[in-house]
């Protein structure tokens, strides 16, 4: 796939620390300046402290000062493309709003969604 963001998500997946599940995920987020921020899942022996690739990518981007985002890619080695979990959808909504979300696998399959379609009626700052 000739797409920098997809290539970045696939490369980030290679860094996954997933000795428990063996399920490796990569994520890449493009910010409004065209910069790419990546993440992989980072598991923990407690299991419950595992952090998904998407949240790692978002938090890395935020900590680097990025605030506006254009597009998110999630990469996994599954025929049925891997969507973000509920916690990641909430975090993505907080920082990316109704962003384009591309799910890809290693075979070059891709599906494109809007976050709003995967996460209808989100709770956010508009309720506070
Ligand atoms: N995981 C992600 O990193 N992102 C997803 O979208 C789905 C799940 C991780 C968490 C855990 O390390 C492993 O995949 C199995 O759930």
Overview in brief:
This protein has 128 residues and is of the alpha+beta class.
List keywords for this structure.
globular, 28% helix, 5 strands, 128 residues, alpha+beta, Cytidine Deaminase, domain 2, binds tetrahydrodeoxyuridine
Describe what this molecule looks like in 3D.
By secondary structure, the protein is of the alpha+beta class. The protein has a single domain (4-127), classed as Cytidine Deaminase, domain 2, CATH 3.40.140. Helix content is 28%, strand content 23%. The protein has four helices and five strands. The chain has helices at 4-13, 53-63, 86-96, 115-118; strands at 25-31, 36-40, 69-76, 100-104, 110-114. The protein has a five-stranded mixed beta sheet with strand order 2-1-3-4-5. Strand 1 and strand 2 (36-40) form a beta hairpin. The radius of gyration is 14 Å and the shape is globular. The protein starts with a helix and ends in a 10-residue tail after the last helix. 32% of the residues are buried. The mean pLDDT is 97. Bound molecules: tetrahydrodeoxyuridine. Residues 18, 21, 23, 25, 41, 43, 50, 52-54, 74, 82, 84-85, 88 line the site of tetrahydrodeoxyuridine.
